[in-house]
Write a structure and sequence with these properties.
Order of helices and strands: HHHEEHHHHHHHHHHHHHHH
Largest sheet: 2 strands, antiparallel
CATH class of the largest domain: Mainly Alpha
Number of helices: 18
CATH topology of the largest domain: Na+/H+ antiporter like fold
CATH architecture of the largest domain: Up-down Bundle
Distance between the termini: 66 Å
Shape: globular
Radius of gyration: 25 Å
Length: 455
């Protein structure tokens, strides 16, 4: 008889308890990702600024203007790398924005009229008043088209600054800022669609309309797999690119058609999950790796499939896409668009240029008056109420942070001043200095008026 015995495979006792110890809500995860993304965004913007103000500027511009394209037979599409980032990758950014908007309206802060009233009113004030400030300084000529630039708030930057304040800031204030910024994003999307569209090709627009109908039918027929939506969304992007309407809006439209209902009721899933876990326990064989235990692996796969079916496709896609957008696409956008050559010898004249001045006045004064001022009026008239645990000084602080326009402001500047390098440079300079001022002053204001609280 052989004395040889099979040695049990080594078990890797990873600290699984830590992974399951704390249940993180989707909102907490969102805030964590936005804060980290904001810090990465700051780093990428700083890198782009350093490159643009050194001998590397020529190489930087050369890389951005490299032609990139593909062809199928006689048909082809070629754009510069800069265009692919701004028109292509940013469509995915707008896709996630669309998912966030839909979730907020269905189940988030914007779903309860009582909670939603103040951030919605504040967001409208924070869009209209900045545009009026800009338009007052640039009422006519080619510069007037830039009125949409100071309407935007960069949610990643603003949340990043709030999170730096730690437990001084109540979560309800962060919720207020997020709800406000999402309404702001929706307003920005509408402005791009209605006012930053050049000539319209109606045949391509008709094709886009047909694709939207197909996307809606996918939803109505209960198709939950993401692939058909992405394929039709890509075709919609192409159709809108040819139509003259900015192609990134295809991302928002596609997102709004993603199903927001689960296949399994939570109680049904709970029963099935308990049954599967019992089978999982019963099929355990001591000392044997799960790689060799076919039954346990099959149960785990079935469990994973069930988890996806009790989640809504909207939730799942927002969770999986948000990281790619926050940590790859938006930082790439910053690298490609924040490279602003600054001539310090003529900085005074640049900052006093009507376009730069209009952008700065809109983002700093316009956002402060638009958000805080309109909120004060709404509260006094009984149309809204302060978020629980906050004071009005903190709303003023959030209003200052609303002046961090960056991503969306630069994006709208690229659309509005596509044919004017001088105006585009002035607009970006205004966005950069206004965002820096708003971030620093907003942080210091909140630091002063928000006493530290014990955890």
């Amino acid at each position: 008889m052989s004395n040889h015995t099979t040695k049990p495979e080594k078990n890797f006792n990873a600290p699984l308890e830590k992974a399951f110890d704390k249940v993180v809500t989707p909102f907490e995860e969102f805030i964590h990702d936005e804060a980290a993304s904001g810090l990465l965004l700051m780093a990428c913007a700083l890198i782009a600024l350093v490159i643009a103000n050194t001998a590397l500027l020529h190489s930087y511009e050369h890389i951005l203007h490299l032609p990139v394209g593909f062809s199928i037979g006689e048909w082809g599409l070629e754009k510069s790398l800069h265009h692919w980032i701004n028109d292509g990758l940013m469509a995915l950014f707008f896709f996630v924005v669309g998912l966030e908007i839909k979730r907020e309206i269905l189940v988030g802060e914007l779903s309860d009229p009582k909670q939603a009233s103040l951030p919605i009113i504040a967001a409208f004030g924070g869009m209209i008043i900045p545009a009026l400030f800009y338009f007052a300084i640039n009422p006519e000529g080619d510069a007037a088209i830039g009125w949409g630039i100071p309407m935007a708030t960069d949610i990643a930057f603003a949340v990043g600054v709030l999170v730096l304040l730690g437990n001084r800031i109540p979560k309800t204030l962060i919720t207020f800022l997020v709800a406000l910024a999402i309404v702001d994003d929706l307003g920005g999307v509408m402005v791009i669609a209605l006012f930053y569209t050049e000539t319209i090709t109606y045949s391509a627009l008709a094709v886009a309309g047909g694709l939207v109908v197909l996307l809606i039918l996918l939803n109505l027929f209960g198709i939950r797999t993401p692939l058909p939506y992405f394929l039709l969304g890509a075709l919609l992007w192409l159709a809108m690119l040819k139509s003259g309407i900015h192609a990134t809006l295809a991302g928002v439209i596609t997102a709004l058609t993603i199903p927001a209902t689960p296949k399994y009721d939570p109680t049904v899933f709970s029963k099935l999950a308990h049954r599967l876990l019992n089978k999982f326990d019963a099929s355990y064989r001591p000392g044997e790796s799960i790689m060799r235990n076919d039954e346990q692996r099959s149960i785990l796969q079935t469990f994973e499939n069930g988890v996806h079916l009790v989640e809504t496709p909207l939730q799942r896609l927002e969770h999986s896409m948000h990281l790619w957008v926050a940590f790859l696409i938006v930082p790439l956008f910053a690298l490609a668009n924040a490279g602003i050559p600054i001539n310090f010898s003529q900085l005074d004249s640049d900052l006093s240029h009507p376009v730069a001045l209009g952008v700065m006045a809109g983002l700093i004064l316009g956002k402060l008056i638009g958000i805080a001022g309109v909120s004060w009026v709404a509260i006094k008239l009984g149309f809204g109420r302060l978020p629980a645990g906050t004071n009005f000084n903190q709303i003023i602080g959030v209003s200052l942070l609303g002046g961090i326009g960056f991503t969306m402001s630069i994006f709208i500047a690229e659309l509005g001043f596509k044919g004017s390098a001088e105006y585009l440079l002035m607009a970006k300079t205004g966005v950069l200095f206004a965002s820096l001022f708003a971030g620093v002053v907003g942080y210091l204001w909140l630091l002063k008026c928000s006493p530290r609280t014990s955890k």
